[in-house]
C-alpha cells in the first residue's frame, strides 16, 4: 500500500515539476462591433426625428428618454427641445418634469 501511495505521489510530483517550454498563449484580438460608427450629428438627428414623430405615445416617449439617459450622457439641447415638444403634444406634464429632472 505504501508503494502504491509513493508511486502516485511521485507521479503527481513529476506532473507538477514538468513545464511546457516554448508554449505561449496566443493574444486574443477581438472586434465586437462590425457596424458603422455613428457621428454626433447623426446621433442627434436620429433622436430628434424619434421624438418628432407625430404619432408618438407616452410609452414611446418614456422608453426613448430611458434609453437616452441610459447612454450616460447629457442630451443636446435640440434633442431635449424635441422631447419636451413631444410632451406638449401629448399634454403630459409629468413626463416633461421627469425629463428636466433627469437632465438636472
TrEMBL record:
What does this chain do? Component of the cytochrome c oxidase, the last enzyme in the mitochondrial electron transport chain which drives oxidative phosphorylation. The respiratory chain contains 3 multisubunit complexes succinate dehydrogenase (complex II, CII), ubiquinol-cytochrome c oxidoreductase (cytochrome b-c1 complex, complex III, CIII) and cytochrome c oxidase (complex IV, CIV), that cooperate to transfer electrons derived from NADH and succinate to molecular oxygen, creating an electrochemical gradient over the inner membrane that drives transmembrane transport and the ATP synthase.
Query: Which Pfam families does this chain map to?
Result: COX5A
Compartment(s) where it occurs, according to its Swiss-Prot or TrEMBL record:
Mitochondrion inner membrane
Instruction: Give the gene that encodes this protein.
Output: COX5A_1
Name the record gives this protein = Cytochrome c oxidase subunit 5A, mitochondrial
Q: Does the keyword Ribosomal protein apply?
A: no
Subunit structure as annotated in this protein's UniProt entry: Component of the cytochrome c oxidase (complex IV, CIV), a multisubunit enzyme composed of a catalytic core of 3 subunits and several supernumerary subunits. The complex exists as a monomer or a dimer and forms supercomplexes (SCs) in the inner mitochondrial membrane with ubiquinol-cytochrome c oxidoreductase (cytochrome b-c1 complex, complex III, CIII).
Entry keyword set: Heme, Iron, Membrane, Metal-binding, Mitochondrion, Mitochondrion inner membrane, Transit peptide
Please give the family membership noted in the entry. Answer: Belongs to the cytochrome c oxidase subunit 5A family.
The protein's superkingdom reads Eukaryota
Q: According to its UniProt record, where is this protein mainly located?
A: mitochondrion
Q: Which organism is it from?
A: Ameca splendens
The membrane-topology field of this record reads: Peripheral membrane protein
Q: Output the InterPro entries linked to this UniProt entry.
A: Cyt_c_oxidase_su5A/6, Cyt_c_oxidase_su5A/6_sf
* Pathway in which the depicted protein is active: Energy metabolism; oxidative phosphorylation
Amino acid at each position: 500500500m505504501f508503494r502504491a501511495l509513493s508511486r502516485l505521489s511521485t507521479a503527481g510530483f513529476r506532473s507538477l515539476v514538468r513545464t511546457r517550454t516554448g508554449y505561449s498563449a496566443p493574444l486574443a484580438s477581438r472586434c465586437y462591433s462590425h457596424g458603422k460608427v455613428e457621428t454626433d450629428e447623426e446621433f442627434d438627428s436620429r433622436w430628434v426625428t424619434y421624438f418628432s414623430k407625430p404619432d408618438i405615445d407616452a410609452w414611446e416617449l418614456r422608453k426613448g428618454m430611458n434609453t437616452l439617459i441610459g447612454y450616460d450622457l447629457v442630451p443636446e439641447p435640440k434633442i431635449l427641445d424635441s422631447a419636451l415638444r413631444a410632451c406638449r403634444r401629448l399634454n403630459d406634464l409629468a413626463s416633461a418634469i421627469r425629463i428636466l429632472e433627469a437632465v438636472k
